[in-house]
Write a structure and sequence with these properties.
The longest helix has 18 residues. This protein folds into two domains: about 160 residues, FAD/NAD(P)-binding domain; about 160 residues, D-Amino Acid Oxidase, subunit A, domain 2 (D-Amino Acid Oxidase, Chain A, domain 2), CATH 3.30.9. The chain has about 375 residues and is of the alpha+beta class. The relative contact order is 0.19. The protein is built from eight helices and 20 strands. It is globular and about 70 Å long. The protein starts with a strand and ends in a 24-residue tail after the last helix.
Length: about 375
Amino acid sequence: MKVYDAVVLGLGTMGSASALELSRRQAAVIGFDHLRPPHGVGSHGGGTRVFRAGYAESPAYVPLVHRASDLWERLSQEFGTKLLTRSGLLTMGLESSAALCGIQHCADLRLMQIDRLSAEEIQYRFPAFQVPDDFVGLLETTAGWLDVDAAILGMQKRASELGAELCLDEGVTGWDMRPGEVVVRTARRKVHARRLVITAGPWTTQIMRDLSIPIRIVRKTFVWFDPLLPAEFAEGAIPIFGFPPNSFYGFPNIRGEGVKVAEHLGGEEIARPEEAWPAAEQDHASILETVARFLPGLARQPLADSQRIIKSATCLYSMTPDEHFLLDVHPKQSSIVFAAGFSGHGFKFAPLIGEVMADLALEGETQHPIDFLRWKEARRPIKADYS
């Protein structure tokens, strides 16, 4: 009977990264996912994600971002595919706003280069943006966007080449803890392993009921526009951008597939991932208002023209109460490690999370500075019925 070093439960973003890193360390790895990532019904849908180091959420993320940056560059070389495009990120708003103050504080504390632009400078350099005179912009030139599908598929492919057994379209039905091992069950087989790595995204709350993981699942919408003035939104013409209403953000017209925009704040809370519904016209209203206000070259004024919309899609945020991640060894079962609650800003850390999960699974500890992301009783679980 084969005994694996680790079973990875969930092979989306963090699970694929964890399986790859475990395989690099010559661990015997098997992974399961009830779907076939990448897909559009979890947390990684939408094709692209922002990469940034000016971290208003907390400067404690910055060393983790820097490590992730190095790892993304290495993966790009290894896969022969450009995963991280450094287009820059321009965050705009009142200078006194929490977002801009947070970014500037992070930059000052970590000695990062952030360029400050006046409203006049913003509109001169990037005519796609129409901003009030009292706005300023903070431009992080080393920020950019990540190719989601290429990253996940590349990590899965490389993990398999290194010996990982990745079982897609095969969900885990349960597991039993035994002295020195975990027995994982699917509809097709029973697998024995020394460690269980749980990277299940919005399914975490169902899978880890015993720990009452404090996660809310929030449905989010992306919208892609065919710009009225294509030259203003072309790759190389503008960076990734952000405006104050609902933390609105967007991307250049990548590969000519449309200008993708979304709102980080807001969205509908659901109890289970299966309850999510496809994007619909009523999801576009708030986004259209912001487009009309700040991006006149994207759709017609005074009201943004919904006919410029090419498509829309959804993804699911897994929100913790403090919006920081949860990375740790299970407090009751040392054979289980987990990564959860990425709260809409986790993708950029994926290869770093892979290293952390491999450390915790194989060594029980990690040298990465993740203490602020550990499970703590003070991070009180929310009360919700997931039955």
